[in-house]
Amino acid sequence: MRFIYPPPEHPQDQRLHYYWSLLDAALQASSASYGPYTLQSYATPLSSQRALAEVASGDAGRINILTRASNPELESQLRAIPIPLDRGLLGYRLFLIRPELQVKLDQVKTLEQLQAFSIGQGKTWVDAKILSQAGFKVVLGDQYNDLFPMLRAGRFDLFSRGVNEIQAEWLAQGHTLPGLQIEQRLMLHYPMPRYFFVPRTAEGERMARRIESGLRSLARSGAFQRHYLAYKRQVLAGLDLRGRRVFRIDNPLLKQGGPRHEAFWWDDLSSELAPARRSKPKPPRSSP
């Protein structure tokens, strides 16, 4: 079985490395039942729209698997493997901002106050629909790489990014776009699973069964947790989430049932978000 996935659109974009590594582990775990496989990146970068079209074209596509945040339109075109690969981390959102905006954001106490700030998102991203339906003003960019200079130029106030994306992106963009920072006090959350997607063909169905079998095998053995925790430590390193004010909105595009109600596949970040403990003052020493 051959699995060909799209390379990153930009050489510095390493957001998806974890997912392809996890896929490799799942395919290895299913080898006894499904036999050998090859997993490789396509040679030429593809836009997100082109990658979707290639997988949707069926067995003749140049790639036959991708990973995306789920939404009904995508699930109607492609065969989803409904297992949240990052345990919902993508739905915990922080903001890249221009530094001068931090003082105003320090005063935000309610969702309505947060909605006064415009948010930048990609034109084809499911987040744009979620945020718009929640009452936010959303400014759209055509390409992922366009959004960073748009933020720097003041075209919008906040660039909403997953906690598993923002640190690496901020570091990568700092070389060419200095002056941006990660907002320090707030977090937005909505349920947002990222799945693997394959063609809606007989071969795609076989791929889907193999991938799900492999992922569930990893979960039973504890290997999935080890992969995930190593990834989580890496992407959260350097981020201070303690005591952030979390605003929660619904994801009306997420199907009811399925993995939404399987607690194992969702991380609530409770330990990371807990306020820092205040150290108790030491009692004064008694006089000798």
Structure in a nutshell:
This protein is an alpha/beta fold. It has helices at residues 17-29, 31-34, 48-56, 72-77, 102-105, 111-114, 126-133, 147-152, 166-173, 202-221, 223-236, 270-273; strands at 2-5, 38-41, 66-69, 79-81, 92-97, 119-122, 138-141, 158-162, 181-182, 186-189, 194-198, 245-248. Helix content is 35%, strand content 17%.
Q: How would you describe this protein?
A:
This protein is of the alpha/beta class and 288 residues long. The protein has 12 helices and 12 strands. It has helices at residues 17-29, 31-34, 48-56, 72-77, 102-105, 111-114, 126-133, 147-152, 166-173, 202-221, 223-236, 270-273, and strands at residues 2-5, 38-41, 66-69, 79-81, 92-97, 119-122, 138-141, 158-162, 181-182, 186-189, 194-198, 245-248. Strands 5, 6, 7, 8, 9, 10 and 12 form a 7-stranded mixed sheet that branches. A 3-stranded antiparallel sheet has the order 3-11-4, with helices on both faces. Helix 1 crosses helix 10. The longest helix is centred in the C-terminal third of the chain and has 20 residues, at 202-221. Mean pLDDT is 90; it is low at 284-288.
